[in-house]
């Protein structure tokens, strides 16, 4: 395997991505390309290359490097922030595209002569496949606790994993590189459902933002919880530090 085909793992502001050196170096004068040429790659504790930038917006940077096209969701409202990221990474072609176009409610509106293949929005156009409707359920199991001062000392929730359930291809289209399929690998069945995918991060609000960007709406939610400070005989356990509560929550999102 050549160096360009080497697989690398990235930690971009706490969001994890997997790609190749060749993809990251697609623009020769970019900061990412220089990072590998000069071998200046800071690592996190898991030996992933660490980049202290906006992890969510980096998905569009990576997509652009892969496809040489800018693909944005409808109602995209962070063009200025995306341009800031493009300038930081010294992606001259992406900067040029963002400078030459305006994005209004997710639609690319050309202010200068712009070749159609250089900028694509996800707005439906003739000849393009319409966004698929469907349902995705996001669930998580976590804990929260009351400290010694009771409700006056509530601890923040701790999420162990964010689960994703739904049609496999729909889940992939929505969550992209942030989706972990290791617990339910593809066995050649193209049209199937899963309840075993989970996200590579534990930021619940980020998962919600991703679904909203893809025009999903929250239609239902359910939760359950149990006090972990009692044993099976309903006897209080001695816990001088805190009383922990275990809980599981599910959120149903629909695009129709």
Question: What is the general shape?
Answer: globular
The helical percent reads 10-25%
The total count of helices amounts to 7
Mean pLDDT, as a whole number?
78
Largest sheet: 7 strands, antiparallel
- Write down the secondary-structure element order: EEHHEHEHHEEEEEEHEEHEE
**Low-confidence runs:** 104-129, 238-242
Give the tags.
Potassium Channel Kv1.1, Chain A; 256 residues; 2 domains; globular
Compact description:
The protein has 256 residues and is of the alpha+beta class. The protein contains seven helices and 14 strands.
What does this structure look like?
The chain has 256 residues and is α+β, with helices and mostly antiparallel strands. It has two domains: 3-121, Potassium Channel Kv1.1, Chain A; 134-255, no CATH class. 23% of the residues lie in helices and 36% in strands. It contains seven helices and 14 strands. It has helices spanning 21-24, 31-37, 58-67, 79-88, 92-100, 168-175, 204-213, and strands at residues 7-12, 15-20, 49-51, 70-72, 101-104, 107-110, 119-121, 134-147, 150-154, 158-167, 179-180, 193-199, 217-227, 243-255. Strands 8, 9, 10, 11, 12, 13 and 14 form a seven-stranded antiparallel beta sheet that branches. It has a three-stranded mixed beta sheet with strand order 2-1-3. Strands 4-7 form a two-stranded parallel sheet. Strand 8 (134-147) and strand 9 (150-154) form a beta hairpin. The termini are far apart. The model is unreliable at 104-129 and 238-242 (pLDDT under 50). InterPro entries: BTB/POZ_dom, H1_KCTD8_12_16, SKP1/BTB/POZ_sf, T1-type_BTB. Residues 6-106 form the BTB domain.
């Amino acid at each position: 395997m050549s160096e360009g085909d080497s697989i690398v793992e990235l930690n971009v502001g706490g969001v994890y991505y997997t790609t190749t050196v060749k993809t990251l170096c697609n623009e020769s004068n970019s900061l990412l390309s220089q990072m590998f040429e000069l071998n200046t790659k800071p690592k996190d504790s898991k030996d992933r290359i660490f980049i202290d930038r906006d992890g969510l917006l980096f998905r569009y940077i990576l997509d652009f490097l892969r496809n040489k096209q800018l693909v944005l969701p409808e109602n995209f409202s962070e063009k200025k922030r995306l341009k800031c990221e493009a300038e930081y990474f010294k992606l001259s072609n992406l900067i040029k595209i963002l400078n030459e176009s305006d994005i209004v409610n997710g639609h690319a509106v050309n202010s200068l002569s712009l070749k159609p293949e250089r900028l694509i929005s996800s707005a439906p156009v003739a000849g393009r496949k319409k966004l698929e409707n469907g349902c995705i359920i996001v669930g998580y199991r976590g804990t929260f606790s009351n400290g010694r001062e009771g409700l006056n000392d509530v601890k923040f929730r701790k999420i162990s994993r964010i689960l994703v359930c739904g049609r496999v291809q729909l889940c992939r289209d929505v969550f992209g590189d942030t989706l972990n399929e290791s617990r339910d690998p593809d066995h050649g069945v193209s049209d199937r459902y899963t309840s075993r995918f989970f996200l590579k991060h534990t930021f619940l609000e980020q998962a919600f933002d991703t679904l909203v960007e893809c025009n999903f709406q929250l239609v239902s939610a359910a939760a359950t919880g149990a006090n972990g400070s009692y044993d099976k005989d309903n006897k209080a356990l001695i816990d001088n530090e805190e009383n922990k509560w275990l809980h599981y929550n599910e959120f149903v999102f629909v695009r129709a």
